[in-house]
Amino acid sequence: MKFNFELEPGKELEVNDYNDHLPLISVIIPFYNDGKYIRQSVYSVLNQTFPYFEIIIVDDGSKDKDSLKELDVVSKLDNRIKVFHKVNEGLAATRDYGANVASECTKYYLFIDSDDLIEKTFMECAYWSLETNKDAGWAYSDSVGFDAMNYTWNKWFSSKKEKKTNELLALSLVRKDAYNSVNGYELREKSVNEDWNFWLKLISKGYYPVHMSFYAQWYRRKKNGSELAKSVENRKRSLEIIRSTAKNIKKEVVAVQFPEYKYEKNTLIEFN
């Protein structure tokens, strides 16, 4: 059976009743001239079955007036949304900024880019995955690539393989204590595989992930390129940083992966 790529989360905003509660998760969304996609991304968060979160959108010095107008509209969708503006510094600095202004009471950070989407049970499943695995540093799911390219992506986690190639997306629920223990993303250079470097930093501290084996992350592949494409262009400098961080990993880290079966092989299924 082929995957149905028309089932994108967040196409419409659903009405979800919830009681006011201190947020347990800070959803951190970097934003840069991305007015075309931000509403659907935020809708996919607001539609979550787990309601105890805040949404922190950090505008990284956008110049596009239409995008800023759309961001202003989105900021008024829900009282859990907070918008901050700062000078342009890049993804890593913007995510760290979001973590620094997050509510002190939250236990987890959910990092999601302004054009990506999550299924409505992602936050609930990731929250309880980390609550029941106290030593795990982060939780993530299999993913769906969509827009300019359509494919499904599921990879069995291996810390040995992660030292050589990155198979993880930034879109993950991260334990705040784990994030703080490695000083967050920390890098201030732009487009140098900051996500990959962050995972290696966590692994070097002995943290392992919980891999949730269902398609709950939607990663938008744009025709006009992305931060991933820019990282490829900066490959030499990126690899210098990655190799330096990977040297700090002294032992293999074993993930919790469920359901507890292994794919016959790492799978990338492309569809026309």
Could you describe the 3D structure shown?
This protein is an alpha/beta fold and 272 residues long. Strands 1, 2, 3, 4, 5, 6, 7, 8, 9, 10 and 11 form an 11-stranded mixed β-sheet that branches. It contains 9 helices and 11 strands. Helices cover 30% and strands 26% of the residues. The protein is globular and about 45 Å long. It has helices at residues 38-46, 65-75, 91-101, 122-131, 159-162, 176-181, 194-204, 227-233, 235-246, and strands at 25-31, 53-60, 81-86, 108-111, 117-118, 136-147, 150-154, 172-175, 208-221, 256-258, 267-271.
Write a compact overview of the structure shown.
Helix content is 30%, strand content 26%. The chain contains nine helices and eleven strands. The protein has helices spanning 38-46, 65-75, 91-101, 122-131, 159-162, 176-181, 194-204, 227-233, 235-246; strands spanning 25-31, 53-60, 81-86, 108-111, 117-118, 136-147, 150-154, 172-175, 208-221, 256-258, 267-271.
Please name the defining characteristics of this protein.
alpha/beta, 11-stranded mixed β-sheet, 272 residues
Mean pLDDT over the residues: 92
Percent helix, as a range, is: 25-40%
**Major sheet: size, sense and barrel closure?**
11 strands, mixed
**So how many helices?**
9
Reconstruct the topology from this structure.
Blueprint: E1 25-31, H1 38-46, E2 53-60, H2 65-75, E3 81-86, H3 91-101, E4 108-111, E5 117-118, H4 122-131, E6 136-147, E7 150-154, H5 159-162, E8 172-175, H6 176-181, H7 194-204, E9 208-221, H8 227-233, H9 235-246, E10 256-258, E11 267-271
Parallel strand pairs: 1-2, 1-4, 2-3, 6-9, 9-10
Antiparallel strand pairs: 4-8, 5-9, 6-7, 6-8, 7-11
Helix pairs in contact: 7-9
